[in-house]
Sequence to fold (360 residues):
Amino acid sequence: MRKIGTKEIEYIAMGSTVLGTGGGGDPYIGKLLVKQAMKTYGEVNLIAAEELKDNALVVPIAAFGAPMILVEKLFSGNEFTKAFEMMEEYLGKKIDAVMPAEAGGLNGVIPFAVATQKNIPIVDADGMGRAFPRLEMVTFTLHNIPVSPIAQADEKGNRNIYHTIDNVWGETLVGATTIQMGGSCAIGCYPMSGAQVKKAAVHGIVSYAQKLGEAILDAKDKNRSPLDSLIQEAAAIKLFTGKISNVTIKTEGRWNKGICEILGLDENQGSRMELDFQNEFLMAKKDGLPVAITPDLIVLIDAENAQPITAEAVQFGTRVVVLGMKANKQWRTPEGIVLGGPQKFGYKEKFSPIEELNKN
Fold:
């Protein structure tokens, strides 16, 4: 157990943007909500999954919606607390700890606001080790943990409780209602025991996000390149250096879909890269050939300051570096590849580990 305050939140927010792989929503607004809550209620205890009692009740709290809409339609902050309280009321039990559903983007920080208000710890774990666009795409699904009951609340005061026949139907029904709510909402989902968290979650991911953030934000104080520092901390592969030449993006339902085109510079002069995204960057192709494929992570970095760039914030002319990172081992199992791999998103390419695609 250790304390997390506003300084640590700065690092975690930055690292969560890296793990968001272009999606997950910009954590800036979430960071402001958390900092304001911490000023009122104090710091938060971060605990390891192993510290949970087996019979503890743990609930992931998350923002749900299209990342582009999350930027334009601000949260009040109360909807996350309401989703938490709805879950407690429905289950008739006190929630012992919260955790991120995903450690990427906005959802890497939002649970801290609820944890400080309710004076409960947050678990150093999540269900992805990155961001994914669909509710069923979590390691909890791989362990047959149901998404239901799902508590849903928006900033207007609308509230729903769902019981769905499986986790895919959870995505379908909550996703449909979210569109009617204006494209974003707060949810509580996947209520589970401490024993289930220990078995099914991606452990240590909040601490990892903090280390990634420190690698970027503290590099100059250590007379290091922020980019080199991030690459070392993340054990990342540098896939491409170039300049954004074109981006096509559209919002379909609660997904941002599009392609980011990059013209090569420096060692990649004369080459071209395409990043295909559905909220998150899912496929990176260099001169038409894949060099990184979901569920491995594809991260777009501003070459000037090593800041990660979300898909909805991509701008023409920006000099960028594309990095690849290994997915958590649970995603590299046959079951994990079915759930979070390229066929799930309609791509014809098969998954191949990033280190295999970049041997030379």
The two ends are 42 Å apart (CA to CA). Residues 2-205 form a domain with the CV3147-like fold fold (CATH 3.40.1610.10). The chain has a mean pLDDT of 92.
